Amino acid sequence: MTLDRLPLLASGKVRDIYELGDRLLLVASDRVSTYDVVHPNTIPGKGAVLTGISAFWFDRTSHVIANHVVSYTDGIPEEARGRGVVVRKLEMLPIEAVVRGHITGSGWRDYQASGTVSGIELPAGLQESQELPVPIFTPSTKAELGTHDEAIDFARAAELLAPVAPDGDGDALATRVREASIALYRLGHEHARSRGVILADTKFEFGLDPETGELVLGDEALTPDSSRYWPADGFEVGTTPPSFDKQYVRDWATSSGWDKTPPAPEIPAEVVKGTQERYAEAYERITGEPLSAWLERTRA
Asked: What is the pTM of this model?
């Protein structure tokens, strides 16, 4: 079996989704996007890093919430080993669940303008990158390819969830998503700090089991694409710390003069190399093993 013999259901910014009857095959590519637009060249090895880090976290958070993973080896074509995962089918929720533990990025810009993030009032006098008193849930919409996600408040998230929520209770489902997201973030943040890394913020995607209505964690978990990781060494409040994640590409894209609309520009070779190194280091820092160990396990 090869990928080209499987029905391709969807191709997103990073992942390709294939039909496997009662299951799906998700394959993480080496594509990279910034501002929701895919760049024409890739970051070699990125797909394996995303899948391997997700595997690490799915395994360690299953006591917090169920996830969609079925297998990283069975039913996966050879060319997708290390990048692919067979998952159960879910009814994916129409929001992204963002948790912020530090004030940075778009949250910092919103705070500077209004003192709030997604309708949540924060203490006065915070500095850029400062850790918040408690992590906050700041959901967003799910944008179509080539368009931008939009930050929303809890009430709007509940409205969007109501049509898919059991008994139409969007508030209850939004509350469950918020609780699960913050619990996952806290676990991830604690582990990351033990490995010399700060998890500043992250986003999750959830779905409902179509038969039981169970809330399930899907897509990816605490990866460099869905999270902002900073080295703890040398961290200073009031600065923009260097990242282990695709923020390195995003920073280049921001300074390149590109207007953030399609088509995205080609990423220079030195930025590709630097990003590749950061992804590999993120994997090693978080999991405590080299990426080659993950590839060996999935390709054996």
From this structure: 0.93
Is the confidence at residue 123, as pLDDT, over 70?
A: yes
Domain spans of the chain?
3-90+269-299, 92-253
User: Hey, CA dihedral for 270, 275, 278, 283, is it positive or negative?
Assistant: negative
Which amino acid is residue 185, in one-letter code? Y
Helix/strand/coil (H/E/C) assignment for every residue in 246-300: CHHHHHHHHHCCCCCCCCCCCCCHHHHHHHHHHHHHHHHHHHCCCHHHHHHHHHC
CATH of 3-90+269-299, one of 3.30.200.20, 3.10.50.40, 3.90.600.10, 3.40.50.1820: 3.30.200.20
CA distances from 186 to 35, 38, 115, 169, 209 (A): 26, 30, 24, 26, 25
Instruction: Report the interhelical angle of 291-299 vs 46-61 (nearest 10°).
Output: 80
From the list 233, 227, 223, 236, the residue with the least C-alpha distance to 196 is 233
What fold, for 92-253? Answer: D-amino Acid Aminotransferase; Chain A, domain 1 (3.30.470)
pLDDT, tens digit, for every residue of 212-248? 999 999 999 999 889 999 999 989 999 999 888 777 8
DSSP-derived secondary structure letter, 267: P
